[in-house]
Design goal:
Blueprint lengths: L17 H55 L2 E3 L12 E7 L5 E8 L3 E8 L2 E9 L1 E8 L5 E10 L5 E10 L5
Antiparallel strand pairs: 1-2, 2-3, 3-4, 4-5, 6-7, 7-8
Length: about 180
């Protein structure tokens, strides 16, 4: 009985040649790289889409709340707060309701957030209405009728997105 060191296959049985193995590896590599590229594109589009929706929603929140309050306002002031250097921009709106309740609402930016402080007859509450805000500019025209609000949100990391909106709020007549 003879033992062969080369293998235990039957006589005449063939294996794969080196060229066939290289071709198979190359085809597998092409398919794998195509799948990997497709997955990366899907992740990029998904991240970009999510960041875009988040940025749009944040600027819309600022536009909604400022518009809502400015339409009711009897007094609007866009003066910066002289007592602090941390406040980037400041907007104050005020109105008195039919029952005598005095509403004073102050908007300011702090650490990429727009905050809304509501004071109703001395009872104060603070809310964060938007995050990722890199610019919030409140400009009141000379006759205090048109308030222009420019808001920019930058949401990012992977696939960073920046969204800017300009809102123009005209106060109600007779106030």
């Amino acid at each position: 009985m003879k033992f062969s060191m080369l293998g235990s296959g039957k006589k005449g049985q063939r294996g794969y040649t080196m060229i066939e193995l290289l071709v198979a590896v190359a085809i597998f590599g092409l398919i794998s790289s195509g799948v990997a590229y497709t997955v990366m594109q899907m992740l990029k589009v998904n991240a970009s889409s999510n960041n875009s929706v988040t940025a749009i929603r944040q600027v819309q929140n600022v536009g909604y709340w400022v518009s809502r309050d400015a339409h009711q306002a009897q007094i609007i002031s866009d003066e910066d707060d002289p007592t602090t250097t941390e406040v980037v921009e400041l907007l104050t709106v005020e109105w008195i309701e039919w029952d005598g309740t005095v509403n004073t609402i102050v908007y300011f930016t702090d650490d990429e957030q727009v905050k809304r402080v509501v004071d109703r007859n001395g009872s104060t509450e603070e809310y964060t209405i938007a995050r990722f805000i890199t610019l919030a500019d409140f400009v009141l025209d000379d006759d205090d009728r048109l308030l222009t609000v420019t808001v920019t949100a930058t949401v990012g990391g992977f696939q960073q997105v920046e969204e800017t909106r300009v809102y123009e709020v005209i106060r109600r007549a007779g106030l």
